[in-house]
Design brief:
Elements (H helix, E strand, L loop, with lengths): L1 H22 L1 H22 L6 H21 L8 H14 L5 H34 L5 H12 L13 H11 L1 H4 L2 H19 L4 H21 L1 H12 L22 H25 L7 H5 L20
Helix pairs in contact: 1-2, 1-10, 1-12, 2-3, 3-4, 3-5, 4-11, 5-9, 5-10, 6-7, 9-12
Amino acid sequence: FLEAFESLLRFAENRTSSLFETAYRPVAKEAAEPVKELFTDLSLYILGTATTVESAVLRFFDSLFPLVYSGLINPGMTELSEDYRECLRLTRQDINPFGRYSKNMVTELSKSLWASRMLSQALSLGIEVINTTEHAALTKECSKALVKMQYCPHCQGLTLIRPCVGYCLNVMRGCLASVSELDAQWREYISTLEYLTNEMAASHDLEIALMGIRNSINEAILHAQLNGPQLSATVDKVCGHPKKREGNLPSANLVPVKEVAETQTFMMAHTSLNNKRREFINYMKRSRTFYASIAERLCDGDLVMRDSSTCWNGEDVV
């Protein structure tokens, strides 16, 4: 799952970078780092770190505004000082140059990434539970009962006699009483996983949300450009008047366009994650009764005598 998440995030990052390289080339070089930071933050959020989608998205738009303002709204500006850039970043929060698009992006991503984050944490919890119960300590009484069940017939020379099914079940249920108590919680856990995977495939579709980042950023930049004169007037009052240079931007600032096979790559990642979701939850649903039936599973097969009328009941051969 994490590999599929990372694959989708990297694809969406490349797709977003290509927007700047094709539509907003004057700022593409400087925008590369904020784009990278945005998707790194989103990846860390899915992994469960103490961050939020809102802080990641707003931090990205804070970093983007100085680039858009100097490179697209006022393309004749000289290199901005760090103080002026910081003033632009702070002003972005007050004048909202990107309109509703930044908040819309927060809303859409928060819903989808929440389900992915919860599923990631749920899988980690499941691994922890399984690893813990795999090494459950046996009590002294349990060890004695297991020895009696497996080896006491040998004292009578009955090395080929195996325990009776009912006897095995009694011993195993006694040994695994603490483990079987997990049954109710494990069933609830499986139901939660089923809910999360269904949410991810429905209203919280991660793929659709990630693919929408490029369009949201594009609409936000267009909105800022459309309101350029008003933004410039406000910024001039708050941050002052930076100097302008004559001539065109140097060609060194232009970034070559990369060809991205978007549709094919996205479909592969989308199909991969959908298949993983479907296969995983079907497999997990089959384990719904695992902790309730663990004694039955252990007393099945070669451990006990099933097809013969002769077996060991703990006291004698019956």
